[in-house]
Write a structure and sequence with these properties.
Elements lengths: L2 H11 L3 H4 L12 E7 L4 E8 L7 E8 L7 H15 L4 E10 L13 H4 L4 E5 L11 H8 L4 H18 L4 H16 L5 H8 L7 H8 L2 H20 L4 H8 L3 H10 L6 H14 L1
Parallel strand pairs: 3-4, 4-5
Antiparallel strand pairs: 1-2, 2-3
Helix pairs in contact: 1-7, 5-6, 5-7, 6-7, 7-9, 10-12
Length: 285
């Protein structure tokens, strides 16, 4: 399951959700805008950025990273990206903050000593979803985040609980958005299930939700484009800017091959790793 894209959908729908995770959120948290930005020379693409309102005095920019796989250079990259973007846009912001969201502590990179000043200060916030408390005691939006971390045997029960709470506590169209995001999580988490099985699990009809139409009815091409976009962003981070020949080769991959590449590239450290992986495809054909 591509959890980072689900989290970014959550933030797009409700940007103030990020600040529900923080002890001291800004007073104008409800006015922040969620966006992604690019920084050139060197090129960085930052997927999760919360920008303060432009019509107010310079405020703090918040960088968010959702990390469900161990990355032993995560903090090096996050701090480099954040500092460079803040440097290039210093006139717009009074401060920067970073929020790293983990499913649990055991995903965090092992060597954090070089970053002890940032990690032990007030500027970096590490959120461990399994330490937020019982999912039923959390706000519904936060509960959706925790739902992505649960074992399958608990997921259905808690998903139905969140669905029931949403219908009781939230007005339309917010409830509609919650249903769509909840079903997104369930469809991806139980991708081997049929439509009828997922409907029975949730007690709803998926044809009525936007997510089912997007995932099931709009077909393979839409999923292929989303996967390509994600893989290219991750490759740029891992091995740098792709030569046009390599980029064209990746463009030609099937959805299944792109998904396999998305898993494999977590271990890439150079362009040679990508070349070797692509050569392996040729050898298997």
């Amino acid at each position: 399951m591509r959890r980072d894209s689900i989290f970014y959908k959550l933030f797009q729908q409700s940007p103030s959700l990020l600040f529900e995770l923080l002890t001291n959120p800004p007073e104008n948290a409800a006015e922040y805008i969620f966006d992604s930005v690019a920084v050139k020379e060197p090129k960085f693409e930052i997927d999760g950025v919360f920008l303060p309102p432009q019509n107010q005095s310079p405020g703090a920019v918040y960088f968010c990273e959702v990390q469900f796989q161990r990355d032993e250079k995560l903090y090096e990259r996050v701090f480099a990206e954040s500092s460079l973007y803040f440097y290039r846009n210093r006139h717009r912001f009074s401060d920067w903050q970073a929020v790293i969201i983990y499913p649990s502590r055991n995903i965090e990179q092992s060597d954090i000593y070089p970053h002890r000043t940032q990690l032990n200060g007030e500027q970096v916030h590490r959120i461990y979803l399994d330490e937020l408390g019982d999912i039923r005691s959390l706000p519904v939006w936060v509960g959706l985040m925790v739902l992505t971390t649960l074992e399958e045997e608990r997921t259905t029960e808690e998903a139905r609980y969140l669905l029931s709470r949403s219908q009781q506590e939230t007005p339309q169209p917010e409830n509609r958005a919650i249903i769509d995001l909840l079903t997104t999580i369930m469809v991806y988490k139980f991708e081997g299930k049929s439509q009828r099985e997922v409907e029975e699990m949730l007690g709803i009809t998926l044809q009525e939700t936007r997510v089912y139409k997007e995932i099931k009815q709009e077909g393979l091409q839409e999923g292929l484009q989303r996967e390509k976009s994600l893989v290219f962003r991750l490759l740029n981070r891992r091995v740098g800017e792709l030569p046009q020949e390599v980029r064209s080769r990746v463009e030609s991959l099937s959805l299944e091959q792109l998904e396999n590449l998305g898993e494999a590239l977590l271990d890439f450290t150079s362009m040679a790793d990508l070349d070797a992986w692509l050569s392996g495809l040729d050898g298997n054909s």
